[in-house]
Amino acid sequence: MSQFSESIASHYHQRTKYAPETIAQKGKSLDWANQPQPFKEYKIGQVIELNPYLSQSTAAIDVAYSDHWIRLSLLLLYSYGLTAQLTTIYGDSMYLRAAPSAGGLYPAEIYLISRGTPWLPAGLYNYQVQTHSLVHFWQDRVWQDLQNACFANEEILAASEIAIVTTGIFARSAWRYEDRAYRRICLDTGHLLGNIELSASINGYQAFFLGGFNDKAVNKLLYLDESEEGATTVIPLIDLLDYTSLPDLPYSHSLPSSIDTKYPSIPDGELLSYLHQATKIDSSPVSTPNPDLATNSLEDKYNFPFCTKISTADAKFIDWGEDFSELENTILERRSTRNYSGAEIKIEQLIALLNFTYQPEAYSDQGLDPAPDYFALEFIETFIAVSGVSGLEEGCYYYAPKAQELRQIRFKNFRKELHYLCLGQDLGKNASAIVFHTADLEQAIAKYGDRAYRYLHLDAGHLGQRLNLAAIRLGLGVSGIGGFFDDLVNQVLGIPEAEAVIYLTTLGVPGK
Q1: Same domain, 251 and 295
Q2: Which residue, 489, 357, 376, 379, is CA-closest to 439?
Q3: Nearest to residue 437, comparing CAs of 459, 454, 420, 455?
Q4: Is residue 24 part of a domain?
């Protein structure tokens, strides 16, 4: 047994698996009276209203630097802003946001840090989603501290004037999903990153995703209680209006943490917190045994001479509209589908989804980021269980993004098995196709330490959000599933146990 299979990240993954024999023990009755609030409140600080800048008309706003405020207001709205208000059966209000979240719990928070500009004073800001405003809760210069906390990425921050920091408030998801909630928190943050990436592009920013930073320093800088909330990413934003051409800046989105193989016996309820602490980098980046681990072999996996291969290279492009109007509408109109009709989708639609998600360079002509940042994408693998796609035989396919082809590796209709492994949800049974994101967890840990667990789930959520938006634009239904019988997925797909199942995205024709 390798040290990687004995690491806390591997231990956490095994401990938080769902299985038919133990699923009843994983759940608990929900204490609705003590559900954590999905919004963070500050009792002090200057509130800056952003709603006036949603008109996108500088002529209507008599404010200096109104163009900056308009772009920032829209970036935040399309990243995490409120998109609907529902009334629950109890008469309470439930708010939906631009990024999907498991159970509507929204564990992620957005902070803005300013170097100090003529239009945005230096200091710390929290994005108040409920009112679409910023609260300026610390009015002092902290940029140098942020640069120091980001290790080898000083040059990116030197070229930036503002940065976003995402955090996770653990209790919001743990209230429902207990220790497994860490998976959901990172997936939900990945959804948010997908929106930030696209929103930055359409509002004149280049977003750089930094996953390697000094956790303790960033948490301290934001005045976070580390037992309740922790930083997950740092995102410098370079204003493209300030540059005739984007500078070629060296940076590293991912840095490794240590590998903890000497963890104590951890009781249920404390596993999530222990894992997050173990994935931190609190002094300087460490060296892992295989920092240059090559993963080119992923493209050669499941490349059997007998399997059917379908090229996806000639995909139909998704039109995101003049001035990104259709992309903006899609972000705001996105909803998770609750029921599928069971009807077929077209093979052209499936290929278009994959093309938008995995071939971003093909969308540079539309003004989108041709090379968005990920953290450990080289370890992510994609499988697709096809139940109802016209022009595509039923079965399981491996998607090779570099070769741009689907390779059929299993020949069967899996609707019954998919229904069961999705915890009996009809979404699994009636979906036309389900996209599975998996990863060789031991290989990822060998390169990035226990922090790989964060990276893999952030990346899977990011990919899932691109699938979400593409599906909605094409008139399809889409819904992510983070709860499934882990080992049964491996059995149904016919993949090794070493492949950790990270995320499922269901696709289909929406039902009534």
Answers
A1: no
A2: 379
A3: 459
A4: no
Q: 40 — phi, psi (to 5°)? A: -95, 140
CA neighbours closer than 13 Å in the CB half-sphere of residue 370: 6
Closest Cα partner for 168 from 144, 187, 149, 140? 187
Say whether pLDDT at 245 is over 80.
no
Number of structural domains, the chain?
2
H-helix or E-strand spanning residue 442:
helix 441-448
Contacts of 315 (CB under 8 A, 6+ apart): 348, 351, 352, 354, 355, 359, 362
Residues 175 and 240 in one domain: yes
CB 126 within 8 A of CB 134: yes
Span 448-460, average pLDDT = 97
Percentage of the chain surpassing pLDDT 70? 94
CA–CA separation, 19 and 45 (whole Å): 47
Helix axes 181-202, 325-333, angle to 10 degrees: 160
Give phi and psi for 432, each to the nearest 5.
Answer: -75, -35
Which structural domain, as residue segments, surrounds residue 332? 289-508
User: For strand 389-390 and strand 345-346, is the pairing parallel, antiparallel, or unpaired?
Assistant: parallel
Q: Which residues of 345-359 are buried (b: 16+ CB within 10 A; e: fewer)?
A: bbbebbbbbbbbbbb
pLDDT tier, 27 (very low <50, low <70, confident <90, very high otherwise): low
DSSP β-bridge partners for residue 398? 383, 407
Tell me the mean pLDDT in the region 138-161: 91
Does the pLDDT value for residue 66 go beyond 90?
no
CA 244 to the chain's CA centroid:
30
> Is the distance from CB of 258 to CB of 450 less than 8 angstroms?
yes
Scored b (16 or more CB within 10 A) or e, 165-198 reads bbbbbbbbbbbbbbbbbbbbbbbbbbbbbbbbbb
CA pair distance 333, 321, nearest whole angstrom: 15
Cβ(122)–Cβ(143) below 8 Å: yes
Same domain, residue pair 120 and 217: yes
Whether residue 94 lies inside any domain: the answer is no
CB–CB of 317/362 below 8 Å? yes
4 within some domain: no
Residue scoring higher pLDDT (313 or 91): 313
Contacts of 226 (CB under 8 A, 6+ apart): 216, 219
Q: Is residue 87 in a domain?
A: no
Q: How far is CA 72 from the centre of its chain?
A: 21
pLDDT of residue 104: 93
